[in-house]
């Protein structure tokens, strides 16, 4: 009888603490406005707002972990954090290694950015892209010469210093840079690749995936996700 009571008590305690576990949210912190480090040294941006709201709705205690992009999937798999929320497009290739929630950001065009006035050969020139991105994969198959860099900032520098004729990246990332460049940069092409952006989760964490999917659905249904998209990407951004 005592053993049965202790087992029942243990089960009750586990049930009560099931959502008290800390969920570690992995992000790059270098891809505004999706995610970046603000002047206070804290994670900020669209995905910080979305992630914090998802955690509240899922009754989860979440902390943010910074990880470089080129190792962000391996370090999820190895257990350094529990989710990837870092502007990661859902692709079949990535889905072979990790699992994804439904998208929390709809598909949007990728943009080629070059120096203003430059005559860029998109199909045969030198195009920069951040390593392990859908844009890098696209350039590699386009006939152009791909040069890869670990960070998005380095791809911009490559265009500035003549290492690359243009950079291909998410339009949501490049267009604000173009607008604030005082005419230094210009959009020189556009292409639609990849699906929406989803949260990466280990394939073994089906319960966490279901929990986050439920929270994302609730944000879509009440309009709060669209409100955050417009806050960070502008009134004309694609919404759900």
Instruction: State the distance separating the first and last CA atoms.
Output: 55 Å
Query: Could you please say which CATH topology of the largest domain applies here?
Result: D-Maltodextrin-Binding Protein, domain 2
Radius of gyration from CA coordinates: 20 Å
- Strand percentage lies at 25-35%
Pick out the low-confidence regions: 1-20
Derived from helix and strand composition plus strand pairing, the structural class reads: alpha/beta
Secondary structure topology:
Elements: H1 2-17, E1 22-27, E2 30-31, E3 35-37, E4 43-44, H2 46-57, E5 61-66, H3 72-77, E6 83-84, H4 92-95, E7 99-105, E8 110-115, E9 126-130, H5 134-142, E10 145-149, H6 152-160, E11 166-170, H7 171-179, E12 185-191, E13 197-201, H8 206-222, H9 224-233
Parallel strand pairs: 1-5, 1-6, 9-10, 9-11
Antiparallel strand pairs: 2-3, 3-4, 6-13, 7-13, 8-11, 8-12
Structure notes:
With about 240 residues, this protein is an alpha/beta fold. It has 2 domains: about 130 residues, D-Maltodextrin-Binding Protein, domain 2 (3-Layer(aba) Sandwich); about 80 residues, D-Maltodextrin-Binding Protein, domain 2, CATH 3.40.190.10. The protein is about 40% helix and about 25% strand. It has a 5-stranded mixed β-sheet. It has a 5-stranded mixed β-sheet with strand order 10-9-11-8-12, sandwiched between helices. The longest helix has 17 residues. The protein is globular and about 55 Å long. The N terminus is likely disordered.
